[in-house]
Write a sequence for this structure.
């Protein structure tokens, strides 16, 4: 009788396990997705803005053009981090 | 009555990030707060257009604002990217800019506290419209054969490299562009909203009769500072969406030689 009860408990636990394991994997995967996706764009935007500041300091009369191009570059670079963020949302909530 | 109606209009749950509840659901015809904000943003855009339309010699008040912002789109976006012959795209780009800006500004308005563009529906439709618009503008300016030849087989590239260049151009121009436009706006606004929510919830949690209340000023200060930052982001994202649409239009209308 007790073996049967143990088996039933184990079966219940086994049935619960996949859902829990999936949620855990999704949660840690979501964290890693955003953390890893932020590295590259972080370096990229830092380099991009640093170079733009240097360009503006060297040639202040071209500052307007440099600023427009800088925003364009930021928009393209940032997209990668944002896709990582969307993956985070999709893994965590949907 | 209006208050009762507003109470009826609910925030959609977080599962509705990428899907829209259809039909007569929990709320009035699936009309939630995001839809209300979108309608209001359209209304404000129409009002702004009506104000900017009748030009006076000495503009003042709201008209001054409207005229100077349309002027900003002319000088700051179209002249920088397309050139003087891009002025015919002013209505489209101005509509995009103001609709996105007003939709985003709801993020910091008490009572709404949610950007209309933090749901995938709005950015996706705007990106698709931009996509169709720049393809049509390119076809109209260069003819269908020339347009697709120029964008898929860019001139000045050695013939053998077309094996590599053409698939990249196809994917980056016709597939990644609308996708990244939509995702950029959506993810930026949603990230900002989540940031504000995090600090708001932290402030509420710290508001207790214990030592924790000593941390409250820092949390509240961050909330205020981030609200200011989000106003800047709202403007910046509207600017970036519009200037990218203008860059794509300019690339379609003026091919590289």
């Amino acid at each position: 009788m007790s073996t049967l009860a143990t088996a039933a408990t184990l079966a219940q636990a086994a049935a619960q396990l996949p859902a829990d394991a999936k949620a855990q994997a999704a949660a840690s995967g979501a964290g890693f997705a955003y953390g890893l996706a932020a590295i590259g764009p972080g370096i990229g935007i830092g380099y991009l803005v640093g170079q733009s500041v240097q360009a503006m300091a060297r040639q202040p009369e071209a500052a307007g053009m440099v600023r427009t191009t800088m925003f364009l570059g930021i928009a393209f670079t940032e997209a990668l981090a944002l896709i990582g963020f969307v993956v985070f949302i999709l893994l965590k909530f949907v | 009555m209006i208050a009762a109606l507003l109470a009826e209009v609910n925030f959609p749950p977080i599962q509705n990030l990428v899907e829209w509840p259809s039909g007569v659901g929990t709320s009035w015809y699936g009309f939630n707060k995001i839809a209300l904000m979108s309608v209001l943003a359209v209304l404000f855009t129409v009002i702004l257009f009506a104000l900017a339309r009748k030009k006076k010699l000495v503009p003042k008040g709201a008209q001054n604002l409207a005229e100077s912002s349309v002027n900003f789109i002319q000088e700051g976006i179209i002249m920088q990217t397309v050139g003087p012959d891009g002025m015919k795209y002013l209505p489209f780009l101005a509509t995009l800019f103001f609709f996105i800006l007003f939709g985003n500004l709801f993020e910091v308005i008490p009572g709404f506290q949610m950007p209309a563009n933090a749901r995938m529906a709005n950015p996706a439709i705007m990106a698709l419209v931009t996509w169709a618009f720049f393809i049509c503008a390119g076809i109209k300016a260069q003819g269908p054969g020339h347009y697709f030849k120029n964008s898929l087989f860019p001139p000045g590239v050695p013939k053998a490299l077309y094996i590599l260049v053409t698939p990249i151009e196809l994917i980056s121009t016709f597939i990644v562009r609308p996708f990244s436009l939509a995702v950029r706006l959506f993810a930026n606004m949603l990230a900002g909203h989540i940031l504000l929510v995090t600090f708001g919830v932290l402030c509420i949690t710290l508001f207790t009769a214990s030592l924790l209340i000593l941390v409250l000023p820092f949390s509240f200060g961050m909330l205020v500072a981030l609200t200011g930052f989000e106003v800047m982001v709202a403007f910046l994202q509207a600017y970036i969406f519009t200037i990218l649409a203008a860059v794509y239009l300019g690339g379609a209308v003026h091919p590289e030689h």
Observations:
- Chain B has one domain: 2-253.
- The mean pLDDT of chain B is 85.
